Amino acid sequence: MNEKSFSLEVDYRYFKKKILETTGIALDAYKPRQMQRRIKELSERKGFYTLKKFWSFLEKNPEEYRKFLDYITINFSEFFRDVDRFNELERKIIPDLLTRTPNLRIWSAACATGEEPYSVAIILEKSYPEVTTRILATDIDEGALEKAKIGIYDKTHVKNVPPVILDRYFIRKGESFIVKENIKRRVKFKKINLLEDNFPREFFWLILCRNMIIYLEDEIKNTLLVKLHNSLRKGGVLFLGGTEKILAPEKFGFKLIGNCFYQKI
Ligand SMILES: C[S@@+](CC[C@H](N)C(=O)[O-])C[C@H]1O[C@@H](n2cnc3c(N)ncnc32)[C@H](O)[C@@H]1O
Known about the structure:
There is one protein chain. Strand 4 and strand 5 (176-179) form a beta hairpin. The chain is an alpha/beta fold. The chain has helices at residues 3-23, 32-45, 51-60, 62-73, 83-98, 115-127, 142-150, 163-169, 181-184, 218-231, and strands spanning 106-109, 135-139, 152-154, 170-173, 176-179, 187-191, 204-209, 232-240, 254-258, 261-264. The protein contains ten helices and ten strands. Helix 3 crosses helix 4. It has two domains: 3-73, no CATH class; 83-264, Vaccinia Virus protein VP39 (Rossmann fold). It binds S-adenosylmethionine (SAM). S-adenosylmethionine binds at residues 73-77, 81, 110-112, 116, 139-141, 144, 193-195, 210-212, 241. S-adenosylmethionine binds next to loops.
């Protein structure tokens, strides 16, 4: 290790400690090389060539700190992300689950700015109005949750929403799309750090945890999968992101029942 890379290591350790103290986010849980590279890139883009200097800049600039958190938590989302999977959810997974229970408890874990739980709420409102239980939607990022509660999106986030659904479940205001109250009412937002906090005490029939575990170290990811499995009812389904495969689902007590859908056995 040369002197330069050593000082970067020391710097990164200091930076991680500060982030942990101020946000409770343990950066070590995320793929370290990827995370370190992203932070270094941002720091350099802002003109700081040591992470210590970058940290003191962030400390003094709350708005920049907010943007930085958005950047590291990567909270991009959109409505009906992976349209085919959401069609499968609507036409196969939800009706199957409804043969097992009328009380379909759903959890959107790592819901970012709310597009995911609202997409599920739209499906329920449209096709399964008899399901009245509220969807629990959680994320580690309070800023994202605030945006989610407000429910105003620009067109890039609704590009997968068919025009008829846009007309029915959104109010258009200039360039923005506002989620209607009947959809909002179906979702309850709460802050939960999936790697640190206690999980909800109830059990769910459907858990969406999409495009989050991909950033985790293998061991951390496996621990999270076990916890998600524990939070499901037997026969309940875990819905993962398009690039997040469980290689040996049986080892975790799951059976693959569709692309991205894992049923608790
Ligand atoms: C790329 S977004 C995925 C959003 C949505 N699930 C989707 O697929 O469109 C990843 C989200 O995971 C959240 N996240 C990252 N680490 C987390 C943790 N430890 N606990 C809870 N949420 C976390 C981030 O804040 C971010 O909102």
